[in-house]
Amino acid sequence: MSPEPQPVDDLVGRWSESDLPVEGRVLPVVTAPASVLSTVGARVDPADPAIVQLAADLVATMRVSPGCVGLAAPQVGESVQVFCVDVSAHPKTRSHHGTFVLCNAEVVSSSRNEKAREGCMSVPDFTGDVKRATRLTVTGQLPATGEQVTIEAEAFEARALQHEIDHCQGLLFLDRAAGAHAIHPRKTYL
Amino acid sequence: MTVHAITVLGHDRPGIIAETTRALAGLGLNIEDSTMTLLRGHFAMMLLCDGETAQADIAAALAPLEADGTLTVEVRAVPAEESAPAAGPSYVLTVHGGDRPGIVSSVVSEVAAVGGNITDLTTRLAGELYLLVAEVDLPVGVDADEVGASLRRVAGELGVEVSLRAVESDEL
C-alpha cells in the first residue's frame, strides 16, 4: 500500500543531491540509435553504492546540460531504472518537487492527457508531439535511503516524469508519436 | 554521392510502398527522407535515395509499377542539400473556412512577403470545408504579431479563420 501522499511529497521536495554521500561526475550522454535506449532497465537496490554514485552523476550531468529538466540512467549508458528530474526553473511548471532522483519508479495512476511537442538530449535531431497525462501519481524509492515515496505531479513535472520513466522502460518519445506527421526535424539555429 | 529523387503518383492500392522499396533495396539504394500521403485518394510518395546506381537502372527496376497504367514513377538526380538552419522561431499556421479560389495563395503570400519560410504544408478539402496547416519559420526581427494581423486581414477578406501560434518544444 502507498503511504500517505502529502508527507512523502515533503520528503521528495526536501531532497537534494547534497543528501547523497558522493560527488556527482558529469557523464557523456548517449544518443539514438544506441541499443541501451531501447532496453528495459533493470530494477535496482537504491542503497547499492554504484546506484548512489549513478544518482549523483545523473544530477551532475543534468546540471551542466542547458535546459535539461531530467535525465535517465539509459541516457548515460546504464540500463537501470534510475532517473533525476528538476523542473523548478521551467516556465511551464506549476507545482514541483525541486530536484530529486527516483529508483524503480512506476506510474500508479494518470489522467487528463494533453499533447505537446517534446525534445530529448538522446534524440538531438527530432522533436515529437506526444500525448501525456497532466495529472500523475508515481511511486518510487529515493537513492541511498531507499525510502518508498509517492509523488503527485501535475503539468510539466508530470510530463517530465513520464518521459524519464519511459526511458527506464526502454522507450523514447519516438515510440509514442501521436501520428505519422508528429515527428519533426529539430530546428537548428544559426 | 548521388541523390535520387523518386516520385510515385497514382491510384492507391495496398502494396505500392512494399513494391517500390523492394526494388530500391534490390539495387542497394539507401532510402533517406521520404514522405507519402493520400491526396484526395491518390497515392503520392516522394523518396530521396542515396546510392551510385544509374538513373536508368532505377527507372527500369521501378517500371513494373507503371505496367498497368495506374501509377506514374519519376526518377531524377538532385544535388545533396544540407537542411538550412532556421534563423528564427517557428510557428504553426492554420487556416480553415469555406472553400473558394485563392485561399492558399493569398495566405502564403503574406508569409513570403516577410521572408517567412514554409517548412511543411498540408491542405485538405472536405465537403465545403477547406483546411491549411503549415509550419513556418519567421526571420529574426519579424514581429509575429504583425504577421498574424496581416494574415487576419487577408483571412477576413476571404471569409476564413486563421491562427499563427508559436511552436513550443520542451526539452526533457
How would you describe the overall organization of this protein?
The complex is a heterodimer of chains A (190) and B (172). By secondary structure, chain A is α+β, with helices and mostly antiparallel strands. In chain A, 21% of the residues lie in helices and 30% in strands. In chain A, strands 1, 2, 3, 4, 5 and 6 form a six-stranded antiparallel beta sheet that branches. In chain A, β4 and β5 form a beta hairpin. The longest helix of chain A is centred in the N-terminal third of the chain and has 16 residues. Chain B is of the alpha+beta class and 172 residues long. Chain B is built from four helices and nine strands; from the N terminus they run βαββαββαββαββ. In chain B, strands 2-3-1-4 form a four-stranded antiparallel beta sheet, with helices on one face. In chain B, a hairpin with a 2-residue loop joins β2 and β3. Chains A and B meet through β3 and α3 of A and β6 and β9 of B. β3 of chain A pairs parallel with β9 of chain B.
Instruction: Supply the number of structural domains of chain B.
Output: 2
N-to-C span of chain B: 36 Å
Mean pLDDT of chain B, to the nearest integer, reads 92
Largest sheet of chain A: 6 strands, antiparallel
DSSP helix count of chain B?
4
- Helix segment tally of chain A: 3
Give the tally of structural domains of chain A: 1
Main sheet overview of chain B: 4 strands, antiparallel
Strand content of chain A: 25-35%
Query: What oligomeric state best describes the polypeptide chains here?
Result: heterodimer
User: What is the approximate shape of chain B?
Assistant: globular
Shape, per Cα inertia axes of chain A: globular
- Kindly, what is the distance between the CA atoms of the first and last residues of chain A, rounded to a whole number of angstroms? 52 Å
- List how many beta strands of chain A DSSP finds: 6
User: What is the beta-strand fraction of chain B?
Assistant: 35-45%
Gyration radius of chain B, in Å: 20 Å
Level-1 CATH class name of the largest domain in chain B: Alpha Beta
